[in-house]
Structures are given as structure tokens and as C-alpha cells.
Amino acid sequence: MLTADVTSILLVEKVLPPSDLGTNLQLLLRWIHFLAGITWIGLLYFFNLVNVPAMKVFDAPTKGKYVPVVVAKALWWFRWGAVVTVLAGITYWYLILRVEPPETPGAHHGRVIGLWLIVVVAAWFINYFLLKQAAVTKSGWTAAIIVAALSVVIFFANTNFIAYENISNRALSIGIGGGYGLFMLLNVWGIIWPAQKRIIAWTKENAEKGTAIPPESATLGRRAFLASRSNAWLSIPMLFFMAAASHYPMFGG
Known about the structure:
Blueprint lengths: L1 H13 L6 H37 L2 H38 L11 H23 L2 H5 L1 H23 L6 H41 L6 H32 L6
């Protein structure tokens, strides 16, 4: 009994979590964001650093067993991890924007999120259209330059057009990093998954029935690869700005 009382006293004195709803909700969203983000980005690195080189040395029978099982399962966690990451992140960012200046707290948070969505989605559609062009698909450098230019557009749109005056470093950094995250999510669902879904089905049919894999698979695979490689590179500045939100006041707020 005495030990229990001592433990209870120590816990009461040392563990004093916030009791307000807002703080606890933000923590929950950040926790979900981290867990889903680790799942998503971890698999992104797996695909780029491990899976792509491995697929180059696998023969057709091995691919027939590996792709429908391992790749299909990994892509399920990959794409839904992306959805949860972005939704939790946007919700968290919205809660932060609600208490940002100017004089009326949250007066312009709807405008900020709306402009942010327009800029990022427009940038992604430009990338989507260009990536469908044969000249871009053949050249990895061309695709890289396009994504780099669009990432610069997203950065300057956030710092000079989307953000209102006196926005905090935290809110602005999350907006930039989150913009890259949304761009990556659109790549996952708009380019990578539609292509991989068809490739997986063709590979499975080839292994089970001997059906020939259509020549179109090479183009789809190349397009998905370029989108995935773009996501891998974009994850680097995305993670930087997420960390800078609380640990590197580069925007003076």
C-alpha cells in the first residue's frame, strides 16, 4: 500500500499532461501524422532503394510470385498511409491557422487553405500532363527539372502569395512542407497506383495463365517510376520544412 501511495504521489508531481481539448487534439493529430508518415515514406524509400534494383534482376517466374503478393501488399499500405498522413496534417495545420494573426484570429484561414490547394493541385496537373509526353517520360533529367521547377513555384507561392502578413514560422513551414506532401499524394493516387494496379494484374495473369504482358506496361512502369523517384526527392525538402516548423525559425515568426 505504501509503495502504491508513493508511486501515485510521484506520478501526480511529475506527470502533468495538459487537460484542454485543443492541445490534446493537436497531439493526437501529430501522432497519427507521424505514424502514417513513417509508414508512407518508409515504403517510398523501400520501393526506390530496394524494390526497383531488385526487379531488374528478377526473372519472369520470380516476378510472377513476388509482384502480386509483396508489391501489391506494400502498395496498399503505401497509398493509404499517404492518405492518412496528408489528412491528419491538413487538419493539424487548419487548427494552427485558426489562431494565427491578423487582428481577428482565424479570419483568413479558409482563404489560405483554399489558395494553397489551388496552387498545389494546379502544379500537380502540370506535372501530370507533362509526364504523359513521351519526350519527358524518356528523360529522367527532364522530369526532374520539371518537378524541381514546380517545387520552387509551390515554395514562392506559399511565402509571397498564399501566406498573409505576420503568419508564424510554424504555420508557413508546415504550409510549404505540406504542399510538397500533397503533391506527392497526388502522384501516388494519380500516377503510381493506376499504373501499378494494371501492371500487377498483368503480371499475375502472366504467371497464372501465361497471358502475354502488353507492351503498354513498359510505358506505365516508366511513368510510375519517375513519379515515385520524384516523390523520393521531394520528401527531402518536405521533411526539412516539417522539422523547421518548430526547430528552425527561418521565416522570422
